[in-house]
Design brief:
The complex is a heterodimer of chains A (405) and B (769). Chain A is an alpha/beta fold. Helices cover 57% and strands 6% of the residues of chain A. Chain A has a 5-stranded parallel β-sheet with strand order 2-1-3-4-5, sandwiched between helices. Chain B has 23 helices and 22 strands. In chain B, strand 11 and strand 12 form a beta hairpin. In chain B, helix 17 packs antiparallel against helix 18, helix 17 runs antiparallel to helix 19 and helix 19 crosses helix 20. Classes of the chains: A alpha/beta (405), B alpha+beta (769). The interface between A and B is medium-sized, with 28 and 35 residues.
Chain lengths: 405, 769
């Protein structure tokens, strides 16, 4: 039984919500508070799983309320349901919230998002980790790339293409951009999983405000000792993303699927960065171990921290309302058969790409891949591996010619 | 004859001739007179000597004894000189010599006497014709001689003067000249200086004469020192002299007092006159003043000019063409500009005396000319239209811009009244006010809607003022006009843009106002839909039970009760009516907002119309609700007896909106989300005006900015919030468009109240604005 708290100063809105969600009464314990203070009072009495609040309220607005809740009850899913469309206010409110929905909101959409958020909570069993994740405003970025972004945004002559280029270089930024694009205030009705689409939907001005005024991105501390792991991680993520995109392109004609696979590939190891940021000592130890880049790492992670990077990443993304296809791809990229999916999906592409990317450059053409063969066979993709290996070679060749900056 | 004789050797013939005669005679007379031959020959010698002088005399003397001997000494009829002959030679010689000498002496004396007589005659003649008087005086003041003409000169005879002497003379001399005369006299006789004195003398008949007395030197005679002198009457000359002097002085004064620099050169180019002004103008050094060296002067003058070559060229040309007059302008290096005029100087008889150059400094004039030209050009080329009319308002001048703008050239419109441009916009009252203002010396400003020559309409803003003459009375009228058609269009655009911006700002707020009801209406309808299904399925079960005639078994009862429980009938029972009621309420809310939007953005017509201010305010408060509902309670206090007001309703709504939004912001600034403030919107009638007031309990307006809050673009809000246009728009609408008033009371920390007065009835000037 999940407990939800709805907060709005307009009583009729609360009544409407109450009635419309009445059919969920068996699964959700729903409570309704007429204002920020009342909400905090309610939270003090009982633990809640989610808070859905209006933005504009007298005395304490939604953003302030969620800020309080983030500090005091970090594991609570924070959602803003607002009638506002004023950009400034909206952008300010985004920071403390996991998700942002606009009124009038389709009740089914609301239900779906809440369900998804709740589902992922089971991914991470360690309450401390869960709390840490829930408190996270953003995945930290490398300072160099962060500076690059701010420099580009400060210049008058930057373009969307440039912004996208920079954002694609950083997992933290890419994740955040996708989160924002999936917030209702952008006005997108579909689910945004392509980074390019996300950036163009948000627009340069908004990115500028978000980055420079609201500081929605964060950076690794310059003195952080673990930050040196990041470039290697990023290289790997780009490799997986590229190969996944090509796999998708070769399997389906759906262009958006290819872009989705790219994003999934880019973000699949985001959990590792979070762990580096939050548990630097422990995690860098784990990373320094041999074979740390294979699926066996999951075992170490669960042993040491109680959750794997895959679960962690998936949890964060689902809290942030990223499309479920992405969430799945991240969650199960090491154990795809657990996802119980049918058909080609970003998970498929990412899993294969990930396995391919771990092949050493001098591997024999017929060396065994750490791919779930059975699962692959169930998707009728068994014979494709050889073909896909060429993608890997292409990528490595291209990477050798154009070493990333 | 003497001269003839003297000069020639013919006189030597005298000797033999006379001797011959003597011989003949003595031959004749010898018998009669004894020793007559001696005397005869002696006579012949003397005669030769007398008439022929020494030469012939000596010759005769030598001849005589020989001839005598020859003739009369018979024993000696030989040639040669006997002893007696030799004895006779000596006396003959002597007598010849004596005779010759006496002869010449007597001759000389006679000559001298004759000369003297001639000379005296000549002298006398000269003196007789000479106007001057000759005199001789001695050192004792005695006048020894004075020309007889003296009486004609001074009225006193020479006898009187000789008698009276110097003393008498001196007594008639002018006292002022006396000393000089005495002194000169002394100087003369002490041998030191020549005597040359001019003095005034009293004529015998009482008139004053100017006399000039000269004596060169002195000489001694008869134991006295004498002096010879000449006395002349110079009265006339003196008169001329004085006249000349005064004329000269006058002329000099004239020449030096003129503003022109004057230079006169004679026919050969040498300068004979230059005045002070010339020196000044050319800055000639002091040493050159009065120097006859015109080369130096010319060089200096030329050096001072900007273009020496052309200066000299003209000079040379004019010297080559002495009869020509010339006038030109020259520039000096120091920036002065001179008007140079030159003409020949001809005497009354037509004789060419030289050339006169006059230089006049026209720098100031030139400067004024330049300024005038500049100003004239400025007016002519000005980017605003300039019209000048006479006292009756008829056009005397228009500049180029006017022609460009209206299509009427100066020729088209000269003498006509600018009223021909009128399009009927301006009222007679406006013209009356205009004329009254400018006739009283004031400046009138206003706007006209005029028609161009081609029929097009345009707007112009004009400033009309009188032009005063030197005495201060009105000479003409000046109108400076600017075509503001574009500006007005831009202003209209700006107003529209401001309005749209205002609307845009509120769109977000209004959207929110609409979204909220939609949210719960949708939710309620979702609920109603689900409830309907649940109810109907329950109903179906009941119907099923009834239709089959089933007995109401306890299982059925339990079954039905369970079904009821399952669909939460109680909840449905309570909530459905509420859901329906609230949904209706919500839709009504939305309708009201939509209506208010329609009311608010009432498109403004060209003319003002009557409007119910209270209704407008009611809509406006609904529109603005999102702005104030979180920070304040808004209360309206509207006077229901307020008559309809002639205005632009859309603009007035915008005004009230801006004031309400400002009030909400002021409260927010003060409270910052702690509690709620209070806004009161009031209407009431105030005489001929409708009064709207908006009060808030906000932060108040600080002293420092109270005079600035109506300025366009002035804002105290942060960048990105508020553009500073709100109150500026309010001011423009109330004051300019409606001829109303706006003011405010404020107290820091307590709040502010803004008051607006709108004239209830239209002014006749408000047509077609």
């Amino acid at each position: 039984m999940k407990r939800l708290l709805f907060v709005d100063d307009d009583a009729m809105v609360l009544s409407g919500l109450r009635r419309a969600l009445h059919d969920m009464r068996q699964e959700w314990d729903m409570q309704f508070a007429p204002g920020g203070q009342a909400a905090l009072d309610a939270l003090a009495l009982q633990p809640f799983d989610a808070v859905i609040t209006d933005m504009r309220m007298p005395s304490m607005d939604g953003a302030q309320l969620l800020d309080c809740i983030k500090d005091r009850y970090p594991e609570v899913v924070r959602i803003i349901l607002s009638g506002q469309s004023e950009k400034e206010a909206v952008l300010r409110s985004i920071a403390p919230a996991h998700q942002y929905l606009a009124k009038p909101c389709d009740i089914r959409e609301l239900k779906m998002r809440l369900n998804q958020a709740f589902a992922s909570r089971d991914l991470v069993r360690n309450p401390a980790i869960a709390a840490t994740i829930a408190r996270l405003r953003s995945i930290p970025s490398l300072p160099a790339i962060y500076n690059e972004l701010t420099a580009a945004l400060r210049s008058e002559m930057t373009s969307l293409g440039r912004i996208e280029e920079i954002v694609a270089k950083d997992i933290g930024m890419a994740t955040k951009i996708l989160q924002l694009a999936n917030s209702a205030f952008i006005g997108a009705h579909g689910r945004v999983s392509s980074l390019r689409q996300a950036v163009s939907l948000i627009g340069i001005e908004t990115v500028r405000t978000l980055t420079l005024s609201i500081h929605v991105f964060s950076q690794f501390d310059r003195k952080s000792a673990v930050a040196f792991h990041i470039p290697a991680l990023w290289d790997h993520s780009v490799c997986v993303a590229t190969i996944a995109q090509r796999i998708a392109a070769s399997e389906t004609a759906d262009k958006s699927m290819a872009e989705e696979c790219f994003s999934a590939g880019l973000l699949h190891d985001a959990g590792k960065i979070v762990l580096l940021a939050e548990k630097p000592r422990e995690y860098s130890e784990i990373l320094s171990q041999p074979n740390s880049d294979t699926s066996s790492i999951e075992a170490f992670e669960i042993a040491a921290l109680g959750c794997s990077h895959a679960q962690l990443g998936a949890y964060l993304m689902s809290m942030w309302g990223l499309p479920s296809s992405l969430v799945h791809a991240v969650a199960f990229h090491h154990r795809p058969s657990d996802a119980r999916e049918t058909g080609f999906s970003p998970l498929t592409a990412v899993h294969c790409a990930d396995a391919l990317s771990h092949l050493p450059s001098d591997a024999a053409p017929d060396s065994i891949l750490p791919i779930d063969e059975t699962w692959l066979a169930s998707l009728n993709l068994a014979g494709k591996v050889t073909e896909w290996r060429t993608f890997l070679d292409d990528f490595r060749l291209a990477a050798a010619e154009n070493p990333p900056a | 004859m003497r001269e003839v004789l003297r000069g020639s050797f013919v006189r030597y013939a005298l000797a033999p001739v006379f001797i011959g005669c003597a011989a003949v005679l003595s031959a004749l007379l010898h018998p009669l007179i004894p020793h007559s031959e001696d005397y005869l020959f002696l006579a012949a010698v003397v005669a030769s000597a007398w008439l022929g002088h020494r030469g012939p005399g000596l010759l005769a003397a030598l001849l005589a004894p020989f001839v005598l001997d020859y003739l009369f000494l018979p024993p000696l009829h030989t040639l040669g000189i006997g002893p007696e002959a030799r004895l006779r030679i000596l006396p003959f010689l002597l007598s010849a010599i004596v005779a010759a000498w006496m002869s010449s002496t007597i001759g000389r004396v006679r000559q001298t006497t004759a000369l003297l007589e001639k000379s005296e005659e000549k002298f006398r003649r000269i003196l007789a014709n000479q106007p001057d008087i000759a005199w001789t005086a001695d050192q004792n003041g005695r006048i020894l001689y004075v020309s007889p003409k003296i009486d004609r000169l001074i009225g006193y005879t020479s006898a009187e003067l000789r008698q009276g002497g110097l003393r008498f003379l001196m007594s008639r001399v002018h006292p002022a000249d006396l000393d000089r005369l005495h002194h000169a006299n002394l100087e003369l006789f002490s041998g030191r200086a020549a005597f040359d004195v001019e003095f005034r003398f009293h004529h015998q008949d009482g008139a004053w004469l100017w006399l000039h007395n000269r004596a060169m030197n002195t000489y001694q005679a008869n134991g006295l020192i004498l002096a010879d002198g000449v006395l002349s009457d110079i009265s006339q000359r003196k008169t001329f002299e004085i006249e000349l002097q005064s004329k000269t002085a006058f002329l000099e004064a004239q020449v030096n007092s003129t503003v022109d620099g004057i230079l006169v050169v004679d026919a050969s180019g040498r300068q004979i006159l230059q005045n002070r002004k010339l020196v000044e103008i050319f800055g000639l050094p002091a040493e050159l003043i009065g120097t006859p060296d015109d080369e130096l002067v010319l060089r200096h003058a030329v050096a001072a000019t900007k273009n020496p070559e052309s200066f000299l060229a003209r000079v040379r040309y004019l010297y080559a063409h002495p009869e020509q007059t010339s006038r030109d302008e020259i520039e000096l290096k120091n920036g002065s500009v001179l008007d140079r005029y030159s003409s020949p100087v001809n005497g009354k008889d037509g004789q060419y005396y030289g050339r006169i150059w006059t230089f006049r400094d026209i720098t100031e004039r030139k400067r004024r000319e330049n300024t005038l030209r500049q100003l004239s050009a400025a007016v002519e080329q000005s980017p605003v239209s300039v019209v000048i009319t006479d006292l009756d308002g008829n056009v005397t001048y228009v500049n180029r811009k006017f022609t460009d703008c209206t299509g009427y050239s100066l020729e088209d419109i000269r003498g006509k009244n600018p009223r021909i441009l009128n399009s009927g916009y301006s009222t007679p009252e406006m013209y009356r006010e205009l004329w009254t203002t400018i006739r009283n010396g004031g400046e009138w400003r206003g706007e006209f809607r005029n028609r161009k020559k081609n029929g097009e309409f345009y707007w112009e803003s004009a400033a009309i003022s009188p032009i005063l003459d030197a005495h201060g009375s009105i000479a003409s009228f000046l109108a400076v006009k600017e075509d503001i058609t574009e500006r007005r269009a831009l202003e209209a655009d700006l107003r529209q843009a401001q309005k749209l911006e205002g609307i845009g700002q509120l769109a977000a707020g209004v959207a929110h106002e609409i979204n909220t009801p939609i949210q719960f209406v949708t939710d309620n309808l979702t609920f109603l839909s689900e409830s309907w299904e649940a109810l109907f399925s329950l109903l179906e079960r009941y119907r099923g039970a009834v239709h089959t005639g089933a007995v109401l078994s306890p299982e059925l009862v339990v079954d039905l009760a369970q079904a009821e429980q399952l669909c939460d009938l109680e909840f449905i029972h309570d909530e459905v009516p509420r859901a329906i009621a609230q949904s209706l309420d919500g839709t009504r809310r939305i309708a009201k907002i939509v209506r208010a939007i329609r009311e608010f953005s009432h498109p403004d017509l060209a003319d003002k119309t009557e409007a119910d201010l209270n209704e407008g305010i009611a809509s406006t408060t609904v529109i603005a609700r999102n702005e104030w509902k979180y920070v304040a309670d808004l209360v309206t206090d509207l006077d229901s007896t307020l008559p309809p007001v002639v205005c632009y309703p859309g603009d007035i709504n915008q005004v009230v909106l801006n004031l309400i939004v400002n009030a909400a912001h002021a409260i927010k600034a003060k409270l910052n989300a702690n509690g709620k403030g209070r806004i009161v919107v009031r209407t009431r009638r105030s005489g001929a005006f409708a009064e709207i007031s908006v009060s808030d309990t906000g932060a108040g307006v600080p002293e420092a900015i109270r005079t600035r809050i109506f300025e366009p673009f002035f804002t105290t809000k942060e960048v990105g919030t508020g553009t500073g246009q709100g109150l500026a728009l309010v001011h423009t609408v109330v004051v300019k468009k409606h001829r109303g008033k706006i003011w405010f009371d404020t107290e820091l920390g307590s709040g502010s109240t803004f008051f607006i007065h709108l004239p209830i009835h239209a002014n006749s000037e408000d047509k077609a604005l």
